[in-house]
Amino acid sequence: MADEVILLDHAYSPPAVRVRIALKEKGIAFESKQEDFSNKSSLLLEMNPVHKQIPVLIHNGKPICESLIIVGYIDEVWNEKSPLLPTDPHDRAHSKFWADYIDKKIYTLGRAVWTAKGETHAAAKKDLISSLKILEAELGDKPYFGGKTFGITDIALIPYYSWFYTLEKFGNLKMNEECPKLVAWGERCMQRESVSTTLHNQYETYDFILELRKKLGVE
Amino acid sequence: MEEAGGVKLFGFWVSPFAQRVKWALKLKGIQYEYIEEDKYNKSPLLLKLNPVYGKVPVLVHNGKPISESIIILEYIDAVWKQAPLLPQDPYERAQAHFWAKFAEEKVRQSVVEAMCSSGDEKQKAVKLAVEAFEEFEKELKRRGTKFFGGETIGFVDIVAGCISYQLPVHEEVGSIKILDSSKFPGISEWIRNFLNHPLINEGLPQKDQMFAYYSKRSKEIAYQKMSHKTV
Q: What confidence tens digit (pLDDT) does each residue in B192-211 have?
């Protein structure tokens, strides 16, 4: 029986990007349904009644929500190839710790950099750079956060590679100066088909964010 | 009982996060050495073991540290197979992860937010907390079991469980009322069942000590928010 895999999706949503990359790494055929945030589908409201947010993976009719939980689920179900998490419990905990760190910091701080002003903006910029440097230290000289293997931590962070140009413009900074190793890591990840066919380029993303700011009524 | 096998837990007496880990270790019968840290005077060792956050709990097993309570719970469940906390089925596991995240981010955090805020912010926070409790109540009812984990305590119960003994204190400190037992019969019953378990109830912090701690902590958090400092 063929699996039915549907993703309630949005082209520019970093959490949704994570799931698309994971699905592609595993070679899973899926149907992407684009959601409009201002007009959520009845399917979305039915499949994620608690948060009413994307991404939602619907696997044979059953919904799984929260991007990193979905990535973990994908890894457990389609476990014959391309492991996204290590098998050793300590290494798994380590990967999840850093994926969780990225989840806690990057979206909120990044978004504040491209929406906030004054003191809030300055604090967000400072915290974001500090977080990126911490991530850079964790990456070290490894090709990926997972070591030799592209894994959940890489998947957690790579959607934000699309944000780099936006962060430079709104943060008045240079990513190559602040975290050159992360820039190199981003370029390395972009060599992977799952990433290059999923991420929008940084300029398209910047245009999207400009539009989003207008819709949010930011300045 | 499992031999010590080099299991250490760094905690803080009132930390609900450390409590989660204690419960998991106890339910699995794992012997461990407990090291009490002082939140206001952290040891250099703790800061070395958890350089990113500098917080408890930290579990050290065979010399290697693991931080973040929910991640520690998963680790414990993966290493020690007795008394499993997570279901085997991948879909059910994903649901357990979902509700654990919800319990932490929407239930527990909203209560603390409501406790520490004032005026309009407080009203908004209480509303959010009540909404979170409503979702939780719905899910409990939908499952129709004694605990989220089924007939025995599981992953979600342990993550959510801190509200069982801390919620009354938070409500008193914050002068708020969230858990109306007539409105939340399911959660109220779940709390009773949870606290009825001897390993759960054993060694919980004293109510008056928690009240004193959270009265002070609530003011600290409110002040930090005002001066835009992060906690």
A: 999 999 999 999 999 999 99
- For chain B, say whether A118 makes contact (Cβ under 8 Å): no
For residue A62, the chain B residues in CB contact (below 8 A) are 91
- Rounded Cα distance between A86 and B142, Å, is 34
Query: In chain B, which residue's Cα lies nearest the Cα of A72?
Result: B94
CA distance B189 to B127: 22
Please indicate if any CB of chain B lies within 8 Å of the CB of A4. Answer: no
pLDDT at residue B1, rounded to an integer: 44
Write out the residues of chain B at the interface with chain A, using a CB-CB cutoff of 8 A: 52, 61, 64, 66-68, 71-72, 74-75, 78-79, 90-91, 93-95, 97-98, 101-102, 135, 228, 230
Q: What is the pLDDT of residue B5?
A: 59
Cross-chain residue pair A92–B52, CB shorter than 8 Å: no
Q: Which residues of B touch A92 (CB under 8 A)?
A: 74-75, 78
Note every long-range contact of B166-170, with CB atoms under 8 Å and residues 24 or more positions apart, other chains counting: B166/B16, B166/B210, B167/B111, B168/B207, B169/B207, B169/B210, B169/B211, B169/B214, B170/B111, B170/B112, B170/B114, B170/B115, B170/B214
Per-residue pLDDT of chain B (231 residues; tens, 9 = 90+): 444 459 999 999 999 999 999 999 999 999 999 999 999 999 999 999 999 999 999 999 999 999 999 999 999 999 999 999 999 999 999 999 999 999 999 999 999 999 999 999 999 999 999 999 999 999 999 999 999 999 999 999 999 999 999 999 999 999 999 999 999 999 999 999 999 999 999 999 999 999 999 999 999 998 888 776 544
A45 touches chain B (CB under 8 A): no
Note the pLDDT of residue B227.
75
CA B207 to chain centre: 16
If one counts every other C-beta atom within 10 angstroms of the C-beta of residue B201, the result is: 12
pLDDT in tens, A37-59: 899 999 999 999 999 999 999 99
Q: Which residue of B has its CA nearest to A59?
A: B91
Contact A74, A81 (CB under 8 A): no
| Rounded distance between C-alpha atoms, residue B171 and residue B214, angstroms | 10
Token couple for A158: 């790579």
Distance from CA of A170 to the nearest CA of B (A): 21
Write down the ipTM of this complex: 0.96
The candidate with the shortest Cα–Cα distance to B14, out of B223, B175, B178, B173, is B173
